[in-house]
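Take a look at the protein record below with the fold in mind.
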Amino acid sequence: MDIQRLHVGKTLSEAAVHNGTVYLAGQIAEDLTQNIEGQTREVLGHIDRLLAEAGTDKSRILMCQIYIADIKDFAGMNAVWNEWVAEGNSPPRATVQAKLAKPEWLVEMVVTAALQGAEE
C-alpha cells in the first residue's frame, strides 16, 4: 500500500497515512510565550488541522502520547485536554514528564488516528 506524507520536510513529515491509519509527528506550540494552557490549546489546534487534512478527526484518535516539561503542569494541560477531547471517545493516553528539545516547549503530543471510513 502507498504511504501518503503531509508537510514533508528534510527532518520529518508532519503526518503519514498508511493502511487506514494516520500517524502525526510530535506537535508543539509555535508561540512559546504562552503558559501550559495556551501551548496545549495551540498543540490541539495543530492536531485538529492535521487530522482534518488527512481525512479524519479527534473522535477517531487511537492513541495519544503526551510529553510535558514539568509534571506540575499536568493539571493545566489536562483541563484543556478535557475541554477538547471528543465526548465518549477519550483515547488511550500516556503522559510523562520529559526534557523536551527546547526549554521553551512545555508540551508535545504524538497522535495516531483511524481514517474516516477505514475498514474496522
Remarks:
- The chain has two helices and six strands.
- The beta strands are 4-8, 13-18, 21-24, 61-68, 93-97, 107-114.
- The mean pLDDT is 96.
